[in-house]
Amino acid sequence: MSNPAPITPIDARVPKSLEIKERLVARRAVLKADAEYIAGEIQAIDSQLLELLGGEVGTHDIAGTKVQVREYSRLDTAWIEEQYPPSQYPQLYKVTTAVDNVAVKKQFAPNVLEEHQVRGAKSVVIK
Hints:
Layout: H1 20-52, E1 58-62, E2 65-69, H2 77-83, H3 101-107, H4 110-115
Antiparallel strand pairs: 1-2
């Protein structure tokens, strides 16, 4: 494993002369880089643990800490659709009714649709 890089101190690489918005953006960039580094380290450790545990699914006790190895799976629905088509096996399929957004946009004026928007939480994206 490589030598871990220290997490950047709060005031590091952010000049005090910058405006508060600029300092916040700079600090966010530093934290984002630290988070990416940490995520990479965690992924490397998890890979090593999987290898050392032989990939055995289950709970392992390591020095009093429970380490779980999980394996996720899902049904191969493409196989079902191919082998059991809905025309012959309708009992295997759901019939759903959902709003067709494309059709709605063609039928309503944009200002009417704008009046009926559901707003979510605001977020920040920095590029």
